[in-house]
Amino acid sequence: MSGAALVAVITGEDVLQTGFSGIALGCKYALIALGFSIIFKATGVINFAQGGFVLIGAYFAYNVTQTWGQNFYLSVVLAMAGGALLGVLVEMLVLRRLVNESPVTVIMVTIGILFVIDNVTTAIWGPDNRNLGDPWGIRTRELAGVTVALRDMWTIAFAAAVLAAFFLFFRYSALGLAMRATALDPEAAMAQGIPARRVHRVSWAIAGAVAALAGAALASGAGQLSPATGSLALAAFPAIILGGLDSPLGAVVGGLVIGVVQQMTALFAPEHFAWVGNSFELVSPYLVMILILLIRPYGLFGTREVRRA
Amino acid sequence: MTATLTHSFRRGGPAPEQVLSYADDIRLLRGPRRSPWRWIFLAAAAALYWFLPTHYVGDPGLRTLAMCGIFAIGAIGLNLLIGYTGQVSLGHAFFVGAGAYTAAYVGGERGWPMPAYLALAVLIGFVVGGVIGPFALRLRGNYLVIVTLGLVFLGEHLWTNWESVTGGGNGVSLREAPMALGPLDFATGIEIGGEAYTFEQSFFWLVWALVAVAALLAGRCRPCATATCRPRSSASAWPATRWVPSHGRVRTRRWPAPSTGCCSSTSARSSSACCCRSPTWR
């Protein structure tokens, strides 16, 4: 079998379709990355447990729809509430005690939390692939001549709504202002009477909530929910790095870029770059990340650190 | 302590247990250089090395202890990177994998003798670390942490797809690799003075000898630029010596790799099959 005979023609429609699913995937990454950058900006903690929040959020949604038989949309809202609660708990029980510890310690602790969440999730819900039971399944819709998955459309809508709500909150609410002030200069903010602890707690809560939403979106479709969902979320790391660690906007842009790159790689690599090997799309985000960092060591939107760490 | 201090003042030198330089601080065995405790410690270590396998611990326990030694070699390499230069790396598993696959391929598939495949595993780790070092130097702190994590994923892709060497998802076996070192054949259990020992006993001795070698090599790192010019806690305290730390960093980034490569080749031997999933960070 020669490679040339197998090459299927990739039409413009294919590219559009892939672009759309890439944006949908990118929205999920953007949500995860947003939670990550909020925490980093407010508390300076790199939260490796974010993937765990995504995983457990998806299982919360599964539990509400499948085990308790409730409405799917309600389950997403409840999962977000559960995720927020989990985030607050982690902050109150663990991270609060680690303020001013060295970054290495904090990173190792969050990795430990990730392992705990991973294993607790598997212990409760088992290792099998599950059906989230979302109303979209694998149905598709024609949109301007392009076939798009219904769940992708809903994911984009959900993500857009949540991201808009977050940026409005961040820009106009008093708490959002407090968060921005704390991120800018924690000591000056505290001197002005801004409760740093509440800011930390709220940022963990937001991160947990958006992670749960991303988890539900990642797990939608047929039999997509498994303990591996959490490691899918690791692809959000390139998104964060791409956008710059401390930039929420960068997180969103980075997420979209990574999502589109990943789907485009999945489309083109098997046909045109077969030599890169199977499922190259799983590593392409990391490759993009490394390339970008070699040119801009602080990401696309990140603040240059003056301190050499 | 007063006694020793007066003693050394009389000699005109500092007290032997005083930490005067960074090199003193990172010495393998701290404490006074001429203290009898140093020799007692070494004697106790040597006694444990010999008598644990022969008298006190059975084969299953020895297997665990050998595993501990293998992790210790990996940790020695990681300590050079994180402890001495402050470069947090989550990508150490990649170097472990590189060494493990090298050993499995040339030892298991090509039948090279043990010293040769161990040496090649170390060399490959050294070269890969040296290639990655300059790139890592462009990154700082948290960015470096996440990029090194990416290295693990890239590595995993490579291990899965480079099937002619790594065997893809099935892995490549080290079961057939020779383990003879001169007259001592570790694969069947060594024989010393007419006494035959089991594989686990022999393997324990082999691994912990390698731990000692790795620790000594790592200790030799201390006169290099990194150790003397760059306190492990912060580079920020030394802005004026910018080129020195970076120079040191390339060197230390090369260093851990060999010891890890070694770690992985022994580790792969112990598990006999080097599966592609095992050398990940999780």
Give a structural overview.
- The complex is a heterodimer of chains A (about 300) and B (about 280).
- With about 300 residues, chain A is an all-alpha fold.
- Chain A has helices spanning about 5, 10-45, 50-65, 70-95, 105-125, 150-170, 175-185, 185-190, 195-220, 230, 235-245, 250-270, 285-295; strands at about 140-145, 145-150.
- Chain A contains 13 helices and two strands.
- Chain A has a two-stranded antiparallel ribbon with strand order 1-2.
- The longest helix of chain A is centred in the first third of the chain and has 32 residues, at about 10-45.
- Chain B is mainly alpha-helical.
- Helices cover about 65% and strands about 5% of the residues of chain B.
- Chain B has a two-stranded antiparallel sheet with strand order 1-6. Chain B has a two-stranded antiparallel ribbon with strand order 2-3. Chain B has a two-stranded antiparallel ribbon with strand order 4-5.
- Chain B is flat, with a radius of gyration of 21 Å.
- Chain B starts with a helix and ends in an 8-residue tail after the last strand.
- Residues about 1-10 and about 225-280 of chain B have low confidence and may be disordered.
SSE layout and pairing:
The complex is a heterodimer of chains A (309) and B (282).
Chain A lengths: L2 H4 L5 H32 L6 H18 L4 H22 L9 H23 L14 E4 L2 E4 H23 L1 H11 L1 H6 L4 H24 L9 H4 L3 H8 L4 H25 L11 H12 L14
Antiparallel strand pairs in A: 1-2
Helix pairs in contact in A: 2-6, 2-9, 2-11, 2-12, 3-4, 3-5, 3-9, 4-9, 6-7, 6-9, 7-9, 11-12, 11-13
Chain B lengths: L1 H10 L10 H4 L10 H21 L2 H27 L6 H18 L4 H23 L4 H21 L1 H4 L5 E2 L6 E2 L2 E2 L5 E2 L2 E2 L2 H22 L4 H5 L13 H12 L1 H16 L1 E2 L8
